[in-house]
Amino acid sequence: MEGKVFGLNDVVEMKKQHPCGTNAWKIIRMGADIRIKCEGCGHSVMIPRNEFTKKMKKVIVKAES
Q: Which residues pair with residue 38 across a beta bridge?
C-alpha cells in the first residue's frame, strides 16, 4: 500500500470535522508529531504522525514549492 504524501503548509481533509464545522486543516509543523491548524477557527492541535496518517483523508490544497 502506498503511503499518504503530504508536506508542510498543505491543506488536508480529516475524517472527522472540527466542532466549528470545517474539516480542512493546514499542516504548520512536521516531525515526530504534526501540528495542524483549523482553517475555520484557527485552533491548532499537535498529534503523533502515525495517528495523523490514520485520520487524514486527502490533501485538498498542495503547498507551493
A: 25
Specify if 2 maps to a domain: no
Flag whether the pTM goes above 0.90: no
Report the C-alpha gap between 36 and 13 in whole angstroms: 11
- Name the 3-class secondary structure at 58: strand
pLDDT tens-digit series, residues 43-60: 999 999 999 999 999 999
Q: How far apart are CA 57 and CA 18, in angstroms?
A: 14
Residue with cell 514549492: 65
Give residue 18's domain range: 11-61
- Is 35 among the domain residues? yes
CB burial of 32-58 (b: ≥16 within 10 Å; e: otherwise) equals eebbbbbbeeeeeeeeeeeebeeebee
